[in-house]
Amino acid sequence: MRKKVLLVSDVFYPYPGGVSEHVHQLAIHLRKLGWESYILTANHKGGVDFKDPPYVFRVGFPVKILFNGSIAPVTISLRINSYVKRLMNRMQFDVVHIHGQVAPVLPMVSLKYSTGYNFITFHAAHKKNFLYKLFKPYIRDYFNKLHGRIAVSEAAIKPILEIFPDIEYRIIPNGVDLQRFRPDLQPLPHLQGYRNILFVGRPEPRKGLKYAILAMPHILREIPDARLVVVGDGPLLGWYKNMVPDSIKDRVMFEGRVSSQVLPRYYRTADVFISPATGSESFGLVLLEAMATGTPVVAARNEGYSLVIRDGENGLLCNVEDEVDLARKVVRVLKDEDLRRRLVEGGLRTARAHGWDRIASQVARYYVDVMEREGKHEGRGIRTV
Question: Residue 154: what pLDDT?
């Protein structure tokens, strides 16, 4: 009999982002491996074009809060307890897999009513937060319901280990969809004629868009036909548009939110991809997406990106919050064809090593390892922290 697994996440399409893509791809590839996967999330509106597959359950609506220097949706509903309880009792999931943090409301309610083996994947690398320590006794009760813990990188597990230093966990990195993101895609005609520098991400401070814009005058002095292309939307988009100097407004294009079908072609059209994120990055899915399309990468030397980029092999690292160094590295890639070719080849190797078929197999193997270790008696062997 096929095992049932429920992936629980406050964020999922049409809400765009790395966690949404991770959950979407994991569900697809677990099904290919013989698991009966389902997704539980909130009723998100707008965002990217997306039609729910039949295995998606939705409850409540997202309320956006500021956390980790970013906007984080939290699922709210007066009926969330009764809905999740009925769902768990009806479906009898073998595995319940939380994505994000052990936090109110949806993750904790799902753990409360789960009758299977409980897992979590930590996706975010964040700075020390006093709320974690303040609510440690409350959070501990839910941590003790977990049978398995996954982190996409050492940067993602680091803040958790500061509170619960003795927990067991396994590192399983992010994956990339190699069918969507590939080097044989057709470039976008409307972007032809310039040396395109691509930024993909929410326009918010920690993503470093400010430094991409500030770098452009320096880049244009060396590469007169350069152009910055910004893909992404959010409440601060207008602020970033206003900070572009009048003298270079024709060299900064804001494309807003683009469809998931077209996004890979933006990467393919770019001459170089940049991600000058200032910190709180655990891995960087956008780096893998760019690499998979054969586009060279320049990224900030933050903790998470440094785990993906081997400087000079599969990308270049620049100093954090340093538009001059960012510009210098971009110019190097655009001027040095040998360097560009080396970075593209190294990036493609990195992307292939992170294909979703491999990553999903690692997750499924971990499920089985933990289930075999814990045995068939509910609650037996759960490590307390």
Answer: 94
CB 174 within 8 A of CB 354: yes
User: Per-residue confidence at 123, pLDDT binned at 50, 70, 90?
Assistant: very high
246 to 40, 103, 209, 252: CA distances (angstroms): 46, 44, 17, 10
In a domain, 277, yes or no: yes
Give the pair of three-digit tokens for residue 220: 């244009």
**Lookup result for tokens 């999740």:** 84
In 3-state terms the chain splits into helix, strand, coil percentages (rounded to 5) of 40, 20, 40
Mark whether 153 and 198 lie in a shared domain.
no
Tokens 């299977």, residue located: 116
Judgement on whether residues 50 and 198 belong to the same structural domain of the protein: no
Q: What is the CATH number of the domain that holds 325?
A: 3.40.50.2000
Nearest residue to 275 (alpha-carbon basis) of 257, 307, 297, 253 = 297
Cα-trace Rg, the chain: 21
383 in a domain, yes or no?
no
**Do 315 and 284 form a contact (C-beta atoms < 8 A)?**
no
Share of the chain above pLDDT 70, in %: 93
Task: Map 337-380 to HEC letters.
Answer: HHHHHHHHHHHHHHHHHCEHHHHHHHHHHHHHHHHHHHCCCCCC
Q: What is the pLDDT of residue 128?
A: 61
pTM (2 d.p.): 0.91
Judge residue 280's burial from the number of C-beta atoms within 10 Å of its C-beta, 0-12 exposed, 13-18 middle, 19 or more buried.
buried
Counting the structural domains of the chain, the total is 2
Domain hosting residue 265, numbered range: 189-353
